[in-house]
Amino acid sequence: MTSEPEVLFARRGEAGIITLNRPRALNALTHAMVREIHPRLRAWAEDPGITRVVLKASGERAFCAGGDIRVVYELGRAGRHDDAIAFWHDEYLLNAYIGAYPKPYVSLIDGICMGGGFGLSAHGTYRVAGERYLFAMPEVNIGLFPDVGGTHVLPRIPRARGVYLALTGARIKAADAFAAGLATHAVPSDRFAALEDALCEGGMVAAVLSGFHQDPGPAPLDAQDALITDVFGRTDLYDILARLDALAAQGGEDGAFAAAAAKSMRAACPTSLAIAMEQMRRGPGLDLAGCLVTEFRIVNRVARGHDFYEGVRAVLVDKDNAPRWDPAQIDAVDAATISAHFAPLEHDLPLSAGAAGA
User: Where is the Enoyl-CoA hydratase/isomerase domain (predicted)?
Assistant: First the structure.
């Protein structure tokens, strides 16, 4: 019996279409998929018959729920750290290429979009959210950090909402994503097929998307806009948590929101939180390539540490949701240890990184 390809490629009219095709695995991104997508994008970039690329996914549950972390976990547990890191190496290079793609790149996102799915879509030209859209970057909950360009995108979201998402792993739907700029358009799910047809027919991509866009309505996070801006606009983890605790003690709607955010942060990996906070500080001063080079430095250290494997064990393997972090408390995280995660490698990611706007 022949297994289904993990990713499908097609040409329709003026569009090159990529379909993530692992619906039973929530279209989790594998190393093999990364190695197929990158050269196909390069070929389409040189093909004058292709004027835009459309990225979509099979099934209704997920666009892409992340990278195939379970495989990376098994490689690392077997001592094959270089093989595990090779996945991130190639994934980050693909993320960078998408960010510099010379043609309109449209992601049709309906369902779960996390981690690797964010990396495949966030750096492209357009991101269309359907009614089932559900976004999160929950990496701090498994001893990882918001990578695949999260260092670039999240701190640039206005009013500290990206910092909030990075530190809490909170889930948001289409309205919040559109308000934050994570989605450029919102289209009803039952209009996705017609939108794809219209994109394949040609015409100006921006005009086609505008013709299908429907206002997704008010963003729920707007209700806590002042709180998020105040709390997550701070640059110190202890300061953020202290403010959340103070607000929680006051009760009310804001107090409940603050208490939930603080609870999420305290359940996360302390070292991951500190890394994420440092990413949010450094990210605005780096271009996308610089952010990905930085993330590759971090992941090299994380993949050879303890917390990532413990987090995956607790959440995805044993599913006891009782990770034993080391250190276990935020106040025990050593600043020098965090800085060391950001230090250059002997073999950095081969990208021309520079300052933001360079």
Answer: 16-342
